[in-house]
Amino acid sequence: MKEPKKPKEPPNIDIYRAWCKGCGICAAFCPTGVLARDEAGYPYVQDIDKCINCGWCEIRCPDFAITVEQKKRRERRTKEEREKERPAREVTSG
Ligand code: SF4
Ligand code: SF4
Q1: 60-79 residue pLDDT tens
Q2: Binding site membership of 61 for ligand 1 (Cβ less than 6 Å)
Q3: Which of 19, 25, 33, 94 has the least CB density, counted as fewest CB within 10 Å?
Q4: Of all protein residues, whose CA lies closest to atom 3 belonging to ligand 2?
Q5: CA-based max dimension of the chain
Q6: 19 occurs within a structural domain
Q7: pLDDT in the model for residue 24
């Protein structure tokens, strides 16, 4: 089976504590050890750089308490990058 490609920048892992029951399924299914559990059993992000954006934690959570949010590419672009992408304005003389 093909390995999922690692994105250039890791996503945000949003854990909604009010819905989480600390069952540990998300951490157990995470294939790269991004998620760990605290003393009470609740998950927390231990090492976001290891995230391969597979979505298993979100898919497997029975309470919809964890979400994998890809950071918006647009927000990460610098001003210089945006300028480069802008089409050059035609100069007309006349
Ligand atoms: S699978 Fe969902 S409910 Fe269970 S610990 Fe993870 S976030 Fe919480
Ligand atoms: S998206 Fe995949 S690698 Fe990232 S935290 Fe969730 S299960 Fe782990």
Answers
A1: 999 999 999 987 654 555 66
A2: yes
A3: 94
A4: 51
A5: 75
A6: yes
A7: 98
